Amino acid sequence: MTPRDVVVALDVGGTGMKCGLVRRDGTVHHSERHPTLPQRGPGAVTADILDIAEGLAARARADGLEPVAAGVAVPGVVDEETGTAVWSSNVGFRDVPLKDLVSQRLGLPAVLGHDVRVGGMAEARLGAGREQRHVLFIAIGTGIAAAHVVDGKAFSGAHGAAGEVGHIIVRPGGPPCNCGGRGCLEAIASASAVGRRYVELSGVPGVTAHDVAIRAAAGEDLANRVWTEAVEAFADGLLTAQALYDAGIVVLGGGLAEAGEALLAPLRVALEARITFHRVPRIVHAALGDTAGCLGAALLALDSLENTQ
Question: What phi and psi, each to the nearest 5 degrees, are found at residue 238?
Fold first, then answer.
């Protein structure tokens, strides 16, 4: 790659898309955001992805740069070998060949990755986990998912579904989950679930997880109850995750993690109370914020170029 080369990167979430042009050293030349609006259906979301990617490539050329590859990150089950968005409950993808569609539209090599796995790669290489070999990155937003990253490489599993810790059942028979199960961690401790639980109990519409965190910190009993329920459920899920992954450090990102120590401090206590023979990992806040997925998509594209040289 030359100093003029950039990669097109898109991180497609259930609510919004974080997009940009990224240089070889990881610096961002240009960034922009767009709403996902998944209620319009997967076809409309796919069309937007292609239009935005094409616009970014055109922006690069207008700025005197050369787009050389594209990386796209999406939620759900992703077949990274074929570049297919197999399934996503939050966006509605069902077997969408995004890698090929982006490559054909741009005339560039493209890669498709899982949004949390690429976010975990970025945190492990550039962010809060950069001094650790074994990193477990967990994103707590509309849903909950994890990336197990070892030496900077995230593992996708045999079917592209590794790291779906949000669907560990922590409360059998509990609240229904978008996946069709009941009592999943995601249905209790995700940002959307925390807000929804408070609304159900209080009858006050429009309360978000951020609001619950603020009210709990101020000493409101109901908010404390909802927050404690979420933390306890999260500790149960994290105990299972630690038994499986034996991480040296757990990096928490996503909207709910923005509560900072209001989440991390009680979570550390709850996990330590549950752990028997396992090593207790460090639990820290993500360093890259909501840019991790976009940076990770860029890293995936850059890695693919190196692997073809």
Answer: -70, -35
Look up the pTM and report it: 0.91
Q: Which two tokens stand for residue 148?
A: 């197990």
Per residue in 14-69, pLDDT (tens digit) is 889 999 999 998 899 999 999 999 999 999 999 999 999 999 999 999 999 999 99
DSSP string, the chain: --TTEEEEEEEE-SSEEEEEEEETTS-EEEEEEEE--GGG-HHHHHHHHHHHHHHHHHHHHHTT-EEEEEEEEESSEEETTTTEEEE-TTT--EEE-HHHHHHHHHTS-EEEEEHHHHHHHHHHHHSTTTT-SEEEEEEESSSEEEEEEETTEE---TTS-TT-GGGSBSSTT-SB-TTS-BSBTHHHHSHHHHHHHHHHHH--TT--HHHHHHHHHTT-HHHHHHHHHHHHHHHHHHHHHHHHH--SEEEEESTGGGGTHHHHHHHHHHHHHH-SSSPPPEEEE-SSGGGHHHHHHHHHHHHHHHHH-
d(C-alpha 16, C-alpha 294), whole Å: 12
Smallest CA-to-CA distance from 256 within 124, 140, 96, 175 is with 140
Q: Answer for the pair 305, 68: CB distance below 8 angstroms, yes or no.
A: yes
What are 161-198's pLDDT values in tens digits?
889 999 999 999 999 998 899 999 999 999 999 999 99
149 strand-pairing partners: 135, 154
